[in-house]
Amino acid sequence: MTISVTVSNDGDVAGDEVVFAFFRPVSTGVTGPGTLLNKQLFDYQRVSLEPLESTRASFTVTRSSMALVDEKGNVVSFPGSYEVIVSNGGSERLTFNVEVKGGEAILRARVQPFPLSEASGTAD
């Protein structure tokens, strides 16, 4: 799914705008670390605009872009209803509802660190 928003410079001076994309759970069906989440940044875009110019900022929303790290260190996708928030960091914001279906899915298992006995090098 791709979300595109129009960003406009209504002023008479060129400038940059940073557009942020966040997600947050909105259903009680969301389990895991999502139950503690206020909102999580998953992407952002900086756009440069001339006076009175408009452009599009686009964000691709995938199951992995809305994943969280569980208590074991795995990157996991949790099913449930989420809200995607696109904002300039101030009062301007748009919201979109997204449903993640299926079961809990480990997208990337935690990488086990090497035991210290296998490390090499010298200490100062």
* CATH fold field value of the domain at 2-63 and 80-102: Immunoglobulin-like
Rg (C-alpha, Å): 19 Å
- Determine the N-to-C terminus distance: 52 Å
Helicity, as a percent range: under 10%
Count of β-strands? 9
Q: Give the mean pLDDT.
A: 86
- Total number of helices: 0
> Unreliable stretches, pLDDT < 50, 5 or more residues?
none
CATH top-level class of the domain at 2-63 and 80-102: Mainly Beta
What is the overall shape? flat
Structural class: mainly beta
Pfam families: Fn3-like
Organism: Phytophthora ramorum
Domain Fibronectin type III-like: 17-92
InterPro entries: Fn3-like, Ig-like_fold
Could you explain how this protein is built, in words?
InterPro entries: Fn3-like, Ig-like_fold. The chain is mostly beta strands and 124 residues long. The protein has a domain at 2-63 and 80-102: Immunoglobulins (Immunoglobulin-like). It contains no helices and nine strands. The protein has strands spanning 2-8, 15-25, 40-49, 54-60, 68-69, 75-77, 80-87, 93-100, 105-108. Strand 7 (80-87) and strand 8 (93-100) form a beta hairpin.
